[in-house]
methenyltetrahydrofolate cyclohydrolase
Amino acid sequence: MVIGQQVTKITRMMAVKTATRRLLVGWAKESQRYLSSAADCKHNHRSQSQILLSPPLVSLDLPEIWGSDSNHYDHHQPPSSITRSKVIDGKSIAEEIRSRVAVDVKRMKESIGKVPGLAVILIGQRRDSLTYVRNKIKACEEAGIKSVLTELPDCCAEEDVMTALFKYNEDSSIHGILVQLPLPEHLDEEKILNVVSLEKDVDGFHPLNMGNLSMRGREPLFVPCTPKGCLELLIRSGVEIVGKKAVVIGRSNIVGLPISLLLQRHHATVTIVHACTKNPERITCEADIVVTAAGVPNLVRSSWLKPGAVVIDVGTCPIEDPSAEYGYRLVGDVCFEEALRIASAVTPVPGGVGPMTIAMLLCNTLDSAKRLYGFT
């Protein structure tokens, strides 16, 4: 009797593991099929409607079953040398995605006479915020997305921000609301972001969206734009994520936390390194995938990287450079030239993650409008 039960249990485990492998292999083949055919199908209606390669998160959920080889240590030897790593061109990938968004927006307008709408609230005159908002508004115009901007002074009251939010929450022509961060210190960021309608939270920062991102079997309405862009870069670059060691440097609510959750949902083994972590270099140099968003220029040197690692640099740090047009230039968290000699692939700064953030904002706004109108 006992032996029979054990055999049945083993049979069930083997069946589940086989199904799991088939699911992963099938999804991998489907992604590869799309990558290989996308260039030849740019004018095909079906390919145009599939803007991103990232699948729904719930489609990735697998049963948590530990096999008999779970305690086996795989002694992989790192590549002996990397002659020159691949530079992941986020700018060109983002342009392709934005063009697909524009096609879908045009199709929506022609089919139902509606277009997606994005409202942006800008408080103060921070130079970086002004630049970001200008780029987002321009991207909306190019994609055919309606955009409206509310500008408030640094000294505005919290009630002024709330009034603008309530107005956009009730406006049926607005499908996405974005409050440009950071806010002036006298304003309560948590209180303000919580007022944004869940259905219009295209930044993905609402607690319910973040909570659903963290839970197996749940699908957030929106994934935060920068982490979503990072994941799309990995997928489009053919990077294997399942079972790989990933280290995320930084634990902000905007990037570090959500990208760690996304990587975990894609079955990576994730470690978060932050300012209080002991021996961060030793931890990071074991990673197959490194995503860094610390905001510290050239923090990650070659000694932090395993040969053949894939590096996604989210950091954007201005450093003085008298030879540059504005007296400064942008660098990332990663020492780029050193990473090129040891990583298998790395994103540049600028031109890597930044353009993808805006592209994902357009995707989220379009998805919100599609959901409201039942448009596919």
User: Anything to note?
Assistant: Residues 123 and 140 are 20 Å apart (CA to CA). The first strand starts at residue 86 and ends at 87.
